[in-house]
């Protein structure tokens, strides 16, 4: 799940990005309203976190442009201006929720989860061969044992579990996890597959990530056979 942060306060933007990536989200940042609108318009994000006091276009103007262009992605608006009139203007501009600064990170995460649930963006747990991936908590578990995954590890494991035993090429995984415009190369996939193999072993999972020349990677169960395609 991709989240776009449009915030010109770079330390705050970096802090929000780290917080959300630690929860397994893929995060993109923009630092002015015009850039934020441009990056949001393809509609590839599950949520937009939009500051009000932005250069070039303020948050209200950016929200109005997005809604006028048909963008239906939920908008969580952040601002230090908490007067009733400001909240009303933000909601009328197209924001779905209005959060006043300073805010507790627990409140922010609760808002993010609520808006993503409303959008249908919160993924259910994925299971394969007795091993469970929980995207909400970024954890991989087998029985009572569990381990936390980094954002990239989560992305790669999600792709493999969603494939249900079918092989995915390294290029496919790169595009889905790093994005088509990334500078990442196939070696990045190999590295994260190595990390995931160690984490699968650490929880005692019977699931393996198998490599097939020219076909990429797939998951296999303890019996040694990939799951049947649906």
Q: How do the strands and helices of this protein lay out in sequence?
A:
Elements: E1 2-6, H1 10-22, E2 26-30, H2 33-40, E3 47-51, H3 59-68, E4 75-79, H4 84-93, E5 97-100, H5 105-119, E6 126-128, E7 131-134, E8 139-142, E9 145-148, H6 151-163, H7 170-177, H8 186-202, E10 208-212, E11 216-220
Parallel strand pairs: 1-2, 1-3, 3-4, 4-5
Antiparallel strand pairs: 6-7, 7-8, 8-9, 10-11
Helix pairs in contact: 2-3, 6-8, 7-8
How many DSSP helices? 8
Spell out the helices and strands N to C: EHEHEHEHEHEEEEHHHEE
Multimerization status? single chain
Query: How would you sum up the major sheet?
Result: 5 strands, parallel
Structural class: alpha/beta
Task: Quote the distance from N terminus to C terminus.
Answer: 23 Å
Low-confidence parts, pLDDT < 50 over ≥5 residues? 224-230
Please estimate the helix content: 40-55%
Shape: elongated
Number of strands: 11
Radius of gyration: 20 Å
Roughly what fraction of the amino acids lie in strands?
Answer: 15-25%
Lateral arrangement of strands in the main beta sheet? 2-1-3-4-5
Q: Estimate the mean pLDDT confidence.
A: 86
How would you characterize the overall build of this protein?
With 230 residues, the chain is an alpha/beta fold. It contains 8 helices and 11 strands.
Considering the chains and any ligands shown, give keywords for the structure:
230 residues, alpha/beta, five-stranded parallel sheet, four-stranded antiparallel sheet, 11 strands
């Amino acid at each position: 799940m991709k989240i776009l942060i449009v915030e010109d306060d770079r330390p705050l933007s970096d802090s929000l990005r780290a917080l959300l990536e630690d929860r397994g989200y893929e995060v993109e940042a923009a630092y002015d309203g015009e850039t934020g609108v441009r990056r949001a318009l393809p509609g590839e994000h599950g949520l937009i976190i939009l500051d009000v006091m932005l250069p070039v276009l303020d948050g209200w103007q950016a929200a109005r442009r997005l809604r006028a262009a048909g963008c239906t992605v939920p908008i969580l608006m952040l601002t230090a201006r908490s007067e009733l009139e400001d909240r009303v203007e933000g909601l009328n501009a197209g924001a779905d929720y209005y959060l006043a600064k300073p805010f507790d990170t627990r409140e922010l995460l609760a808002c993010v989860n609520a808006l993503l649930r409303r959008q249908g963006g919160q993924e259910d747990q994925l299971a394969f061969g007795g091993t469970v991936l929980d995207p909400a908590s970024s954890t991989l578990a087998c029985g009572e044992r569990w381990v936390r995954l980094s954002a990239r590890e989560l992305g790669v494991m999600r792709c493999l579990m969603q494939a249900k035993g079918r092989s995915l090429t390294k290029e496919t995984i790169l595009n889905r996890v790093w994005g088509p415009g990334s500078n990442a190369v196939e070696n990045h996939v190999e590295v994260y597959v190595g990390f995931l193999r160690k984490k699968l072993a650490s929880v005692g999972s019977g699931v393996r990530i198998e490599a097939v020349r020219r076909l990429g990677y797939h998951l296999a169960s303890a019996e040694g056979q990939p799951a049947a395609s649906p």
